[in-house]
Design a protein that fits this description.
With 258 residues, this protein is α+β, with helices and mostly antiparallel strands. It is built from 5 helices and 5 strands; from the N terminus they run ααββββααβα. The longest helix has 58 residues. The protein is elongated and about 70 Å long. 26% of the residues are buried.
Amino acid sequence: MGGAPESRGPAPAGSSSSSSSSSDPSGPMEACGRVSELLAVCVLLGGWLCALACTLLPNWLSMSTELLAMESYQLGLWETCVVQQIGGMECRPYDSLLGLSYDLKLGRILMCASLATGMLGFLLTVPGMQMVNSCGGGGVGGDGEGGSQAKRTLLMLGGGLAALSGVLCVVPVSYMAHLAVVRFFDEAVPAVVPRWEFGDALFCGWAAGVLLCTAGVLLLATACLGSRSGHRRPGRLRYRYEARGSGVLTAGKRSEYV
């Protein structure tokens, strides 16, 4: 009659959180997102280094003649070189910028633009990674919807700039290769006249373009997948916090009855 009413305590918070976390797929998705971001950054950096090497190398085109079998000529964006079979190499920069052909001018402009765009994309991508603590959203284990949205925006900008850098790198390289093919098979030129052929820098430029475009696609895909998973996360977090809060209130009521 005068006994205190018994009230059943809530279920332990650990069991509910463990069951909800076991069924929550956001953990593996975040881990895959971090791995893809790190892979994209490594590919982006490798592609940018290949683009830099392609810009500086003097062997965009090479030419060898039968009359001078011991020498070969190399053509680059910034200088021309004479390579001898005995191991000597002599390079000379171009005398005048205005005297350059239009293909070399186009190559210089687009390759410099590719390097600048790729570096800007890299600088925007690094603070947008989930494992980097920036933008107020926290790095590993950080919360904050505004910070997460800012990180996704940085990733999308970095991915777009990386893809644009790859396109800017492929265009001058492919155009130079196209001109070399057209001039090589020109029937109006006598067969005894030496012709320019592909150099190693062209293949390096194609590799740089592929790597940069791949990094851009990876970053854009990671940002899009992160935005989809971010819309589902706040509801589960609120439910989990409400469950924990109700457990604390019930425990307090029971102590007052006793």
